[in-house]
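Researcher: Next entry in the queue.
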Amino acid sequence: MEFRDNKAIYLQIAEYVCEHILLEKWQADQKIPSVREMAVTLEVNPNTVMRTYELLQNKNIINNKRGIGFFVAEEAVANVKSYRKAQFMEDELPIVFRNIYLLNIDFEELQTRYNTFVKENF
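Model: Structure for this entry, 122 residues:
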């Protein structure tokens, strides 16, 4: 995984976990990699992964079953979407709006490009 400088590593790992859940690579009630396994895979400190897992537990995206490990929560997909949507609306959308305004892009062109993107990718 390539980490970006503009965001904390534990938040980028949270995005990685959330993406695996949204892409259904990890299903509800499925065990996810342990803190150590994830740390080795991503080449980060286990404390960083633990911080990620604590964040995701607080968002009810994963659960810790003592002595067994971490599992994808039953309602993980809905909670991931809610969490990611709030992040997008607060962090990324204002930048998109600013660029739309500065570049004088109209909504019809955006709609056309969005529809093309969806058709080609999904």
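Model: The mean pLDDT is 95.
Researcher: Noted, moving on.
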